[in-house]
Amino acid sequence: MKSRGMFIFGLLGCLMAGTTTAVHKAPAAVKPPQTIVYPSVASQVSFKSVTELQVTQPSQKIMYGDNPLQFGWLWPGDHASNKPLIVLVHGGCWLNAFGVDHSFPMATALSQAGHPVWSLEYRRTGDEGGGWPGSFDDIKSALKNLDALNQHGINTESIILLGHSAGGHLALLAASELTEIKFKQVIGLAAITDISRYALGENSCQTATPKFMNGLPHEQSADYHQANLIYRQLPASVTLLHGDADRIVPIIQTKLPAVNVEIIPAAGHFDWVHPGSPAFQKLLTVLDL
Q1: pLDDT of 107-130, one tens digit each?
Q2: What is the distance between the alpha carbons of residues 154 and 145, in angstroms, rounded to a whole number?
Q3: Residue 34: its pLDDT value, please?
Q4: Residue 32 per-residue DSSP state
Q5: Could you tell me what percent of the chain has a pLDDT over 70?
């Protein structure tokens, strides 16, 4: 099973070869006011299928810091629906080979469901200042600068913090630390929670973890302790959504105390970012709670 997982994720890495942090432009947009209808797909979608989906163009690029990678794309959603702002943290093994652009289908669908969406880019492994703790510092900086959205007509009083995979790890860490922000919900999608355990695995994402942390757990024990959610007190609003067919982030990563956990049968790792998947429909249901 491990060799099969390594092959699948390695193949995805090959498909993404050549992707760099230089890509900051939004994909070609569908002309408004056309609404994109994402057809239903079977579970266990590929990363490539997500990158091939149509998207709508964000309305604004809003900086939260001075570094060119410290920004977020904003979709305004439907003001009349009064749905909470979603702050979205993308995944990708903390690597700069995987940028914010692959979150665009998800952000499109969430905005079409009525939510304003601010999808964050941040410095990652391979970027100057990225890795631990720089990537985490960026997410915290963005959340401390939510007032920047007010001038664009976004209500920041009600916030859902949503992160996928490595982005789920960073989002949950931020929720544990920024206690002054009262999140309506904090949702980890296939989130990495026990980073020390994860760093000892053998798939391509697991072997990228020591690069993010500048060493293995026994080499950087203090940093791993800080970055490990099992040692953090999380707010009661945290929900973990995970597929039992995820070959990239093992289901054991849902073993956190005092959080809500929902396991989705047959769902794979990238189902959460594909708006046509059953897992994504489950996410929409959770967001409406």
Answers
A1: 999 999 999 999 999 999 999 999
A2: 13
A3: 78
A4: T
A5: 89
In sequence order, which ranges of the chain are alpha helices (DSSP H)?
Answer: 2-15, 47-51, 104-112, 134-144, 166-177, 195-198, 204-213, 221-227, 278-287
Residue-range domain boundaries for the chain: 43-287
- For the chain, the first-to-last Cα distance in angstroms comes to 36
For the chain, the average pLDDT equals: 90
CA-CA-CA-CA torsion sign (196, 202, 203, 207): positive
Split at pLDDT 50, 70, 90, the class of 79 is: confident
DSSP 3-state assignment of 217? coil
- The residue-averaged pLDDT of 135-150 equals 97
Of 160, 162, 170, nearest to 130 by C-alpha is 170
271, pLDDT greater than 80 = yes
Structure tokens at 50: 């997500």
> Is the omega angle on the peptide bond into residue 39 within 30 degrees of 0, that is, cis?
no
pTM of the model: 0.88
Task: Please state which CATH number belongs to domain 43-287.
Answer: 3.40.50.1820
29-62 b/e (C-beta count within 10 Å ≥ 16 → b): eeeeeeeeebeeeebbbbbeebbebebbbbbbeb
